């Protein structure tokens, strides 16, 4: 057996959800489980989180449908709403709350009113999805005239709540709050970063995602400092150890060269498993619990690590991320975020569910 595995920890997911719940105060908590539970597996993530929260959030109607097929009866929020009339009908059957972000969705509802709860998405400065306040106000009036349609709240999304030099969240929140107050409906705006950082942004409903999966939303603050626990541990085994001399280079493109005699370990994991190919030389890994670094370019089935000063044998375990090396550290070395690392793990690593580690 190759031994390349992704250990998943339901207890840590539940712990992190309790952290979100504690921070939320009186606000309802909807745990975001879109994109296959941020790569952890939709069913595993949803079941581990569901008991600690008030509802679950997904991006797509088929994700909501999958949750119902898994037997989850919780309130569901579909953050991109329905894409067409069939999905609108499906939302009603699934009892899923939908986000309405554009007038064309209201047109569909006017053409065929369905008994659905709607969160009206207002653009407050993210300039991605959502309507400007005036347009949103006009669409709210149309929605309120429709039989069976319930306007549940105003929703917005922050562009920079995770940024060290954030100057935008306050004005985004003020705009969203003004509309919710005017329409006399609840407000939902906070993602993980805002939930942790801005008590005022918690409003009536929060939508944490990444913090539930044990990562920090902030580049300058480690997950452990926020009392978040790793929910996954990605590991593989050493399958060869090669001596190198000064001047020997390793791997495709010869991007790493030994500056003296040493040993390089070959690890049975690569981008075919979802480890990022663009991870540069120096990206941290841990061999037998000791930190070291990538040496050479990541290939499809293998990567290579510097074993200088490390006691290691063929068959020993290498942690790609998890307990010793944080996923956030690897992400930072790769110029990305742990969200992407988690979502990109392929079906190839063996999934092992660890019920005992929290
Ligand atoms: C609409 C919406 N709400 C909440 C979240 C959760 O954000 P985060 O994972 O940063 O907490 C997301 C994720 O991107 C989202 O798209």
UniProtKB/TrEMBL annotation:
Gene Ontology process terms (BP): D-alanine biosynthetic process
Catalytic activities: L-alanine = D-alanine
Keywords for the protein's UniProt record, in alphabetical order: Isomerase, Pyridoxal phosphate
Coiled coil location: none
Molecular function (Gene Ontology), one example: pyridoxal phosphate binding
Protein's pathway: Amino-acid biosynthesis; D-alanine biosynthesis; D-alanine from L-alanine: step 1/1
Pfam families to which the protein is assigned, alphabetical: Ala_racemase_C, Ala_racemase_N
Active site: 34, 252
The organism's place on the tree of life at top rank: Bacteria
Sites where the protein binds substrate: 128, 300
Cofactor: pyridoxal 5'-phosphate
NCBIfam families the record matches: alr
Protein name: Alanine racemase
Species in which this protein is naturally found: Alloalcanivorax marinus
